[in-house]
What does this fold into?
Amino acid sequence: MELYELSFCNVEVLRSDIAEVSVFEGVDVDLKMVEEIHQCFLSIFAHSFSLLINKSNSYSTQFDALVHFGTLQSIDKIAVFAPNKLAKLSADFSADIPSSAELNIQVFIDRNDALAWLKNNVISTLPKGVE
It folds into this structure.
C-alpha cells in the first residue's frame, strides 16, 4: 500500500481502485487543498476510483471546497466512515451538497462496513484479474 502525505491529509491507496483519505485534526479544508488532493488522485489513478473518507479526526470544510470536491469526474463512489454522531451529521450534510448528490455516497459508523461496501460495489469496474 502506498501512503501520500499532503499538506492537510494522508491518502492511502488500499487497492488499485480505492484510496482512504484521513484529514488531519483541526484542519479547515479550503479550495486550494481540494485542488491539491485532486492532483494527487489524478497522479495515482489512471482510471475511475472510489474513496473511503475517514472522519475519525475533527476538521471543517469550507462550503466552496465541499462543492468542488465532488466535481472530479473520475471519482466513482465514496464511503464515509463517521465513527461518532457529529461526524455522521457532517457527513450526511456533505452528501446532500448538489455536486455530491450526483455521486454514490454512503455513510457508515463502522470502517470495515464502509470498506466492504466499496469493495462490493467497485469490483465490477476492475479489469479481470486486477485487485
